[in-house]
Amino acid sequence: MARLLIQGGVRLNGEVEISGFKNAALPVIPATLLAGDKYRIENLPLIDDAMCLVDIMKELGADIDVKDGDVNIDTTNIKECRALNDLTGKLRASYYLLGAGLGRFKKVEIAYPGGCDIGSRPIDQHIKGFEALGAKVEIDHGIIRCSAERLIGTTIYLDVVSVGATINIMMAAVMAEGTTIIENAAKEPHIVDTSNLLNAMGADIKGAGTDVIKITGVKELHGCTHNVIPDQIEAGTYMIASAATKGDVTVKNIIPKHLEAITAKLREMGVEVIEGGDFVRVIGNDKMSCVNIKTLPYPGFPTDLQQPMTSLLTIAKGTSIVTEDIFEGRFKFTDELKKMGANIRVDERTAVIEGVDTLSGAIVKATDLRAGAALVIAGLMAEGETEVQDAYHIYRGYEDIEKKLTKLGAKVERIEK
């Protein structure tokens, strides 16, 4: 089991290149099911979750060649979408097979998806959308089965803003008869990225990035080339790491607009953030002040950066209040921060953080993907050595994190045992 050993107290300095966006890449891979054709996906992050989906697609019959983040996928030989082994249980995004498989084959079976244990993550909005399009959905002994003789476009109002449901319904609807309208749709950048991919395949989608998306069904789709957008969560993590270590880090290959929420909070804390066309430079200091944070759907503060930001706030002067409005289980990792000397009180979805002068290195355990990143940040700014156990969580979403941090001057070592 992978562990990370971190020697704290080193000021990060230099440049870091951001990989393709995990949350945009994960729907792209199943989306290639929609047409039996050849695709080229560029800037795919070589992270464990993406490679797990690649393995699932290979088992379905796809021919896939991965080389340095550029992936060639040929789905010509896939004749059905049945993924019933334990691979689907390793990640949440395996549920995108439902929308893609339903869209192409009008029938799909997958084992129930897995993912991080960060609270309730129902798929009821996905099911609601599929059923509205005319599909029959059954869940029996951990197997999800969706089938339809025909998919008919309709208007679907999402009861809650859901990225996964928005993308899954888009994929199922692209070859449905007539027009589908998704109301109260999610607006995250990876919704737009998935829409761009589908349109490049021949779909007719308008409104992605707004709360109303219109999909006019087409008779067939084809292969294409697609470049995955930069990972805003990885970028935000390195921005926070620079601030946490009083560093000076330029985060490159990004879209600054996607980072406006984290940029605003860092500036509110007194951190200097300089924006360029495709980079941000973050210069930390020892006078960071407390802030309050509330996670919200995009363009609000992202839940995936709440945990790394909570680590940073443990050394900010004053009292910070963090409210988690997306996933109620995001504060499990705070017990690990307390081992390092953090002063945090959690009451259901709210954490009250009293800033301390410094954290101390300790043996801690990553409870999920973003919690792992948060503990890495805590280790970077702590005195002494920190050992992050169960670091496999981190590699589900961060490509070469120890190599990138080492390039910035950090003392980080990955131990495989």
Automatic annotation (TrEMBL):
GO terms for cellular component: cytoplasm. It is found in: Cytoplasm. Its EC number is 2.5.1.7. Keywords: Cell cycle, Cell division, Cell shape, Cell wall biogenesis/degradation, Cytoplasm, Peptidoglycan synthesis, Pyruvate, Transferase. Residues 7-405 form the Enolpyruvate transferase domain. The modification 2-(S-cysteinyl)pyruvic acid O-phosphothioketal is found at residue 116. The active site is at residue 116. It comes from the Bacteria. The keyword Cell cycle applies. It catalyses: phosphoenolpyruvate + UDP-N-acetyl-alpha-D-glucosamine = UDP-N-acetyl-3-O-(1-carboxyvinyl)-alpha-D-glucosamine + phosphate. InterPro entries: Enolpyruvate_Tfrase_dom (IPR001986), Enolpyruvate_Tfrase_sf (IPR036968), MurA_subfamily (IPR050068), RNA3'P_cycl/enolpyr_Trfase_a/b (IPR013792), UDP_GlcNAc_COvinyl_MurA (IPR005750). The keyword Cytoplasm applies. Pathway: Cell wall biogenesis; peptidoglycan biosynthesis. Phosphoenolpyruvate binds at residues 22-23. GO terms for biological process: cell division; cell wall organization; peptidoglycan biosynthetic process; regulation of cell shape; UDP-N-acetylgalactosamine biosynthetic process. Pfam families: EPSP_synthase. UDP-N-acetyl-alpha-D-glucosamine binds at residues 92, 121-125, 304, 326. GO terms for molecular function: UDP-N-acetylglucosamine 1-carboxyvinyltransferase activity. Cell wall formation. Adds enolpyruvyl to UDP-N-acetylglucosamine. Belongs to the EPSP synthase family. MurA subfamily. This is UDP-N-acetylglucosamine 1-carboxyvinyltransferase. The gene is murA3.
